[in-house]
Specification:
The complex is a heterodimer of chains A (782) and B (474). By secondary structure, chain A is mainly alpha-helical. Among the domains of chain A are: 357 residues, no CATH class; 189 residues, 3-Layer(aba) Sandwich (Rossmann fold). Chain A is built from 36 helices and 13 strands. In chain A, helix 23 packs antiparallel against helix 24. Chain B has two domains: 225 residues, tricorn interacting facor f3 domain (Immunoglobulin-like); 214 residues, tricorn interacting facor f3 domain (Immunoglobulin-like, Sandwich). The longest helix of chain B is centred in the N-terminal third of the chain and has 25 residues. The chains are: A mainly alpha (782), B mainly beta (474). Chains A and B meet through helix 28 and strand 12 of A and helix 3, strand 21 and strand 24 of B. Chain B: It comes from Miscanthus lutarioriparius. Chain B: One of its GO terms (cellular component) is oligosaccharyltransferase complex.
Chain lengths: 782, 474
């Protein structure tokens, strides 16, 4: 925050008072921004309840519960046998622990103060708290680039940007909630180090990077963006010792620290996501050496040395690059993880990994989603980029680079819109603040001219005083941002020249900067309207679009609010009325919720690390009843859970997700073929549907006795009558169906006793054994 | 099935009779000359709890000494399930008749043999003089005494239960004349043991009149009938009462509920449950009524995974009624857990007694209607700084003290823990906890917060006025 000491006390007592007042005002504004960021995210608590949302947050919540109950060492060694049965999962070594540790620490702190908050409450409110932190970090980052005004503007915009709200409403207890704060704060510390050249900030930067690595897999964005910026600075001739201080400690300390996180480990030096940073590290040292030698040698001698070094250096570089390429090419996934590859090649996932493609948040976004998520910022960004170039500093070039890369990534995956949001906010903040300062300055100038011009002669004093004040302001900004910055020094020189020239020909100079009075007022009004529009949109998005917890649904009808609480009904039933060690099979979407809410062992969950296992469940769901029973029985499954929306019209149910089960299952077990489930390339479950579709387990479990509800079997989601209406289940029995039929739970019937003396015909038994032998691929667990 | 069970019963009867007579020979209380002139036993089997109303007309023989107590006998199984025994004595004549409650204590007599009847003595307020007679009204309740048979039923079946008792009154005294009525909820009575004279009228079975029964006689009977009333059993209930002298009492009740009837077997079809509610799942229940004190506020109803959205609260000036639905209908053997919490105004429940101490006056039992609580724990968390807690409960409970911490506590709050097993609605009687409390303690936490904020500012001011840099800047 703008401490009064920092600003130069050139203007004397009055100016100091003004600075103190400004500092207090700034701090108060920041406080209010924090309050806005926190409270705009509470719509979900007010409209629904204080509950964990969606899928992944349930896993994080469960991990946090474990952490708070068993302590940190147990947590690192936690082998979870409740999931991926029979494989299990080493939780401590495969999660990004940042979020869990953060919430766990907050909980521990509160409880040691005897404030009895439950783990759940802490988890629900972690995201809003960190949104406030993120907006403060945005203030700091933007202040480094463009001064306090832009910082406040950017912080205010970020506090309510819908894209970020969508991931951080109260209850959305996901990695991104803290990761965005860590991302912005790391960038701030990088820019701060770049501006000051202080090793203190460089160390903090490495620690902040460590926190980011702990929190989110998106840390690779940082470790690639910062090298890119360093490279950009070197190429554009902006190398300085500050750049070296900002980058070299980050790579060394950051990589060492990152390797401490179990989930990253040696990946920090072995995967190609991190290679760019090492390459740039080498280049930076070469450049530093060159600059050092340049200082030692005479220009002529330097030229000779340069040619020598460049020829040798290029050869070495080529060799290193060749080795790297060979290393990368020799590894099966080319050294890149699937998700990262799909970032570079947007078509990669849909081609090779149906699991990644099946997740809706991994799809490329549509244009309306840009308008929905960043709204008017999309129009302000170009102006922000322009003002970043006048003048271009290290910090502002970083902003531009951040924005450009973020735009690219957001175009690949909807989910990464989240990374774009801070960049968009910062640049829009800069743009708005520049426009406001131009407009208000011209109003001020026009007003002063109006007051002083009209009564008497055009005295020199009035314009001079006004230019003085603007000059002071400029200097304030500059001195706050970068006291040691080269370009700013240049600017200051320029300013002095300007100031000298101002006294000679003030009017001409001002006319270039000043807009007419009416136009400025109009402009300000229009900007306020634009801002108002943005705020209204954000509040609407927070209240209506992004606050639904998705485990409890509501619908508003004429006779009031109707609540669909079927998911929790089913999970509560499972948790209280089945045996503790029973295994529940469902599609992987419901894995995290089942383990967290029902505390039952699941076969697959949202972690999706084992494609074969998921494919097995997909195959079972798309097989006929008997084959499915065999697969499930071999997996020790006792209950099968399906989500069915046909009765109340809940569209994201298992029938709509079914094609992905077929695709993922078919990817591993080739006897499941997608065309068998499609009629003329169309997916349907009405009378036109294929017999394979109408006989698969998923169809039967969803529509069992459905026809008896209305006599016709009209599916409200698909909008037609179902194909096969009357059928019986032979290997499964219905044990629970929720109030609105949204979750149906079936139990595998036990194997029939063999009746003595009434053995099956030898022919039939031979047949079954042969099918078993042939169908070995069908069931990998036999 | 029936003849077999009857035969086993007959043998059991014989055995019991033998034992009973053996006991009567060996260890009967000293003869005080009391005998039961007439006894009427009304057994109410309509609900999940067995209620027995006993009207005893006792007289003291002219030759004996004064009798200060009357003994009641129960079988060992009955004692296990016995939740409450109450006795009143009718005093005065005709119009001025008043019922005086009498105290009851478990008698140590005659508990030597494992199968011997356990005795409870009703202490008479005024001793019964030789030759006098008096009328006692006794009420006792038995929980878990209805055994579902068949033990597992499917969704479409209704629940049948067994009830076992004796046709004649089990009593250590000589009974001159006795009759037993058994009331059942519906006309569907599968079978009942005949011990002539036995008559059935609708949903009621009458045993008797039997004359001149010897002490400790026992004639086992078995009634098999339909009972579809909700068998809601709270396996564990923890009621936590937190008193804040700033004006609020916060009560949190954690329930572990179970359907204690015949176990559900096989399929649960939502379709049938919704389309044929009368036949399908007749013994299941889906809502419960909680009776709360008036002026209750901030009521919540949730479980460990969040709010349960199906509840209604009705309040008026005399009582509040909260109708709750568990997340799913409860069939036999199904469990669920939930938490109910509410706030109450302090001035309605905390008072100052004449000696300067304060006391809280609350109802003891479970606010759910018609339920059995197997294990009830009441924790009264007194405000921080209160001393000498003293609970006053009208019946025997297990008591101890503990310390709990919440909301920035430093020394902790004294907590009075009362435990009781086998609690029914009759236990919903007021109880008091007396404690000493100095109102100055109310200010402890606000003062602590104020000083913390003050310290923070002082530290900040100090930081701003100190130069911590290593190199002096010129």
């Amino acid at each position: 925050m703008a401490e009064p000491e920092v600003s130069p006390a050139a203007a004397g007592g009055g100016g100091q008072l003004r600075n103190v007042f400004g500092g207090v005002l700034c701090a108060f504004t920041l406080l209010l921004i924090g309050v806005v960021a926190f409270s705009i995210r509470l719509f979900s608590v007010i409209k629904y309840e204080s509950v964990i949302h969606e899928f992944d947050p349930y896993f994080n919540f469960r991990v946090t519960q474990f952490l708070s109950k068993n302590g940190i060492y147990e947590f690192w060694n936690w082998f979870d046998d409740r999931t991926w049965y029979p494989l299990g999962r080493v939780i401590g070594g495969t999660v990004y622990p940042g979020l869990t540790l953060t919430a766990g620490t907050i909980w521990w702190l509160l409880n040691s103060l005897n404030i009895p908050l439950s783990v759940e409450t802490v988890c629900v409110f972690t995201a809003p708290i960190f949104s406030a932190n993120a907006s403060w970090a945005t203030y700091l980052l933007t202040k480094e680039a463009k001064g306090t005004g832009a910082g406040l503007m950017a912080a205010a915009i970020l506090a309510m940007v819908p894209s970020y709200i969508s991931r951080s409403v109260a209850g959305s207890y996901d990695n991104e909630a803290v990761a965005i704060f860590a991302l912005i704060f790391t960038f701030y510390l990088y820019v701060k180090t770049l501006n000051t050249g202080s090793l203190f900030y460089a160390t903090l930067n490495a620690l902040s990077y460590f926190y980011m690595v702990c929190s989110w897999g998106g840390y690779t964005f940082i470790i690639n963006l910062i090298p890119m910026h360093v490279l950009l600075c070197i190429v554009t001739g902006r190398y300085s010792s500050r750049l070296y201080i900002a980058y070299a400690p980050l790579v060394i300390l950051g990589t060492l620290l990152a390797a401490l996180v179990p989930v990253v480990g040696f990946n920090a030096v072995m995967t190609s996501e991190h290679f760019a940073s090492f390459l740039v590290f080498i280049i930076l040292h070469v450049v530093a050496l060159v600059y050092y030698i340049k200082g030692l040698l005479t220009p002529r001698l330097f030229k000779v040395a340069m040619t020598l070094v460049i020829s040798v250096g290029l050869a070495v570089c080529f060799a290193v690059v060749a080795i790297l390429v060979a290393l990368v090419a020799s590894s099966p996934t080319k050294g890149w993880s699937g998700r990262s590859l799909s970032l570079l090649d947007p078509t990669y996932a849909s081609k090779y990994i149906p699991i990644i493609a099946s997740v809706s948040e991994h799809q490329p976004p549509t244009w309306p989603s840009y308008f929905m998520d960043i709204n008017v910022l999309a129009f302000l960004i170009p102006a922000g980029i322009i003002s970043c170039f006048l003048p271009l500093s290290d910090a502002s070039s970083f902003m531009v680079l951040y924005l450009v890369t973020a735009v690219y990534f957001s175009g690949v995956m909807v989910r990464l819109m989240l990374v774009l949001a801070p960049a968009a906010c910062i640049l829009s903040g800069i743009a708005l603040s520049e426009v406001f300062s131009v407009l208000t300055r011209s109003i001020k100038f026009q007003l002063s001219k109006f007051f002083y011009d009209s009564p008497t002669s055009p005295g020199d004093s009035s314009p001079e005083s006004s230019t003085n004040s603007t000059k002071n302001e400029n200097r304030n900004e500059k001195s706050e941002t970068a006291p040691k910055e080269k370009p700013s020094k240049k600017n200051r020189k320029k300013e002095k020249e300007v100031a000298e020239s101002v006294s000679v020909k003030p009017k001409k100079e001002k006319r270039l900067l000043v807009l007419p009075f009416e136009l400025s007022v109009m402009g300000i009004l229009l900007l306020i309207v634009l801002g108002g529009f943005y705020v209204v949109h954000c509040v609407w998005a927070a209240a209506e679009a992004y606050s639904a917890p998705s485990i409890v649904l509501t619908s508003r009808s004429r006779d009031g609010l109707h609540v669909f609480d079927d998911f929790r009904e089913a999970y509560a039933w499972l948790s209280h009325n089945t045996d503790v060690d029973d295994k529940v099979a469902s599609w992987w979407d419901y894995g995290y919720q089942t383990t967290a809410m029902a505390n039952r062992t699941v076969i697959v969950d949202n972690n999706t690390w084992n494609n074969t296992h998921i494919a097995t469940v997909g195959t079972a769901m798309s097989s006929p009843e008997k084959a499915a029973w065999e697969i499930f029985n071999s997996l020790d499954v006792k209950y099968v859970l399906v989500v069915f929306g046909g009765l109340v019209g809940y569209p994201s149910d298992d029938i709509n997700k079914f094609l992905w089960m077929v695709r993922i299952g078919g990817g591993v077990f080739p006897h499941i073929k997608e065309p068998d489930y499609l009629r003329d390339g169309q997916y349907r479950v009405d009378a036109q549907a294929t017999p394979t579709m109408l006989n698969c387990l998923m169809y039967k479990l969803c529509y069992y006795r459905f026809v008896e509800t209305d006599g016709k079997g009209f599916d409200k989601v698909r909008g037609y009558e179902i194909g096969k209406k009357h059928f019986k289940l032979t290997h499964f029995e219905e044990v629970f169906t929720t109030h609105h039929w949204m979750v149906r739970i079936y139990k595998l019937k036990p194997q029939k006793n063999r009746v003595r003396g009434k053995l099956k015909k030898p022919k039939a038994s031979a047949k079954t054994s042969s099918t078993l032998a042939a169908g070995q691929k069908k069931n990998p667990w036999q | 099935m029936l003849p077999l069970s009857l035969r086993t019963l007959a043998t059991r009867t014989l055995l019991l009779l033998v034992i009973a007579s053996a006991v009567s020979c060996s260890s009967l209380p000293p003869e005080d000359g009391i005998r039961v002139v007439s006894a009427e036993k009304r057994i109410d089997l309509t609900g999940p709890i067995v209620k027995v109303f006993l009207t005893l007309k006792v007289e003291n023989t002219p030759t004996a000494s004064e009798a200060s107590r009357v003994l009641l006998a129960f079988t060992p199984t009955e004692v296990q399930h016995l939740s409450i025994v109450k006795a009143t004595r009718a005093e005065g004549k005709r119009k001025k008749k008043a019922f005086v409650p009498l105290s009851i204590e478990a008698s140590e007599l005659a508990t030597t043999a494992p199968d011997a009847p356990r005795l409870y003595s009703v202490l008479l307020s005024t001793p019964l003089k030789p030759g006098d007679a008096t009328t006692l009204e006794v009420l006792y309740m038995l929980t878990h005494s209805l055994e579902p048979f068949p033990a597992e039923i499917s969704q479409s079946e209704s629940q049948l239960v067994y009830y076992r008792d004796s046709a004649v009154l089990l009593s250590p005294y000589y009974v001159l004349e006795q009759v037993t009525y058994i009331k059942m909820p519906s006309n569907r009575i599968e079978s009942f043991t005949r011990v002539d004279p036995t008559t059935r009228a609708g949903s009621e079975v009458k045993y008797g009149t039997y004359n001149n029964q010897m002490p400790n006689s026992y004639l086992p009977i078995l009634v098999h009938y339909e009972n579809n009333r909700p068998f809601a059993v709270v396996e564990e209930l923890v009621r936590k009462v937190e008193i804040s002298h700033w004006g609020n009492i916060q009560i949190t009740e954690q329930y572990k509920l179970k359907h204690g009837g015949a176990r559900h077997k096989g399929v649960f079809s939502r379709l049938e449950y919704q389309s044929r509610p009368s036949v399908s799942g007749a013994s299941s229940f889906k809502n419960l009524l909680v009776r709360l004190p008036p002026r209750v506020h901030s009521v919540y109803y949730r479980d460990e995974i969040g709010n349960i959205s199906s509840s209604h609260l009705r309040t008026d000036s005399h009582k509040s009624e909260l109708e709750i639905e568990p997340r799913y209908p409860l069939f036999g053997g199904w469990h669920c857990t939930f938490t109910i919490g509410y706030g109450l105004p302090l001035q309605d429940f905390v008072f100052e007694s004449v000696d300067g101490r304060r006391y809280i006056n609350l109802t003891f039992g479970c606010p759910l209607l018609d339920t059995v609580v197997d294990d009830l724990t009441v924790k009264v968390v007194l405000p921080e700084g209160s001393k000498n807690p003293q609970p006053v409960v009208p019946f025997v409970t297990e008591k101890h003290l503990e310390t709990s911490y919440s909301y920035l506590d430093v020394v902790g709050r004294t907590t009075v823990v009362l435990k009781k097993k086998n609690v029914v609605g009759e236990h919903n009687v007021p109880f008091q906890v007396y404690y000493e409390f100095n109102p100055i303690f109310m200010l402890a936490e606000p003062l602590m917060l104020i000083s913390a904020v003050l310290l923070f500012f002082v530290a900040f001011i100090a930081y701003l006025h100190m130069d911590l840099s290593i190199r002096k800047s010129s």
